[in-house]
Amino acid sequence: MKNFDDKVAVITGAGAGIGRSLAVALANEGARLALSGRRESTVAETAELCERAGAKARAYRLDVTDRQAVYDHAEEVLADFGRVNLVVNNAGVSMTSGVDETTWDDLEWIMGINFWGVVHGTKAFLPHVIASGDGYIANVSSMFGLAACPTQSAYNASKFAVKGFTDALRQEMRMEGRPVGVSCVHPGMIKTGIARKARAGASRDVDELADNFERLARTSADRAAKHILRGIRKERSKILVGPDAYMIDLMPRVLGSGYQRVITASMRRQPA
């Protein structure tokens, strides 16, 4: 997929952050947009921004944890747009909590959105993406889908799972000669509101954690979107976004399991 002109792009989690920036960037390149999120009002705002850029865009309310709803959404998008070329399974949430304080509800919540949301979106749209003859699926993991971090066990689990699922999908598409490119996206800390909407263990303060995240985040959502679209054009299997993502990717490859000692030591020097 060397260009996005007249391509039909589906983006989950499009109401803010990376999802919104991706939608606007694609609109500026001539794509047609099927945008979804849990809050249709914020997704409608994104769709309006895309329409100002001259693109056809439609907002949908969607809970990616609801398998049947995602399958119904895929059929609705096909009816509205006639085909599907690009799917970006972007919807995601964050949580900071030690293993001992993470509840079963927390685990089901984060896996339902971060992992099962990606699986639902991939399986529901894959037949349509294949049928387009020029298709692409980009699943959003994280830099913490490349290396583990204390207090991020549930988030790590969800994002490592996205990486494994996506890597296997890419191999299958190539092995079967399907006209579908596949990328796994690994953003670092991006300047979005995700930390403000996160969950935290009972002993932790969400606002304090969000303040710390926002001090460390250096990459804007718009810049992240440009990196992702560049990676899709080049059909990169792994799209790293931000200097911190490149660093986290490098550490396990250079240090092996020793990277864990480095991360643990760095975590001791900053708020948990």
UniProtKB/TrEMBL annotation:
Gene3D superfamilies reported for this sequence: NAD(P)-binding Rossmann-like Domain
Pfam families, alphabetized: adh_short (PF00106)
SMART domains cross-referenced by the UniProt entry: PKS_KR
Keyword Ribosomal protein: no
Residues in the signal sequence: none
GO molecular function terms listed in the Swiss-Prot or TrEMBL record: oxidoreductase activity
GO cellular component entries: membrane
Domain Ketoreductase per the UniProt entry, residue ranges: 7-193
Swiss-Prot/TrEMBL keywords: Oxidoreductase
Family assignment from sequence similarity: Belongs to the short-chain dehydrogenases/reductases (SDR) family.
PANTHER family per UniProt: DEHYDROGENASE/REDUCTASE SDR FAMILY MEMBER 7B, DEHYDROGENASE_REDUCTASE SDR FAMILY MEMBER 7B
Record's protein name: SDR family NAD(P)-dependent oxidoreductase
Organism: Haloechinothrix aidingensis
Organismal lineage: Bacteria, Bacillati, Actinomycetota, Actinomycetes, Pseudonocardiales
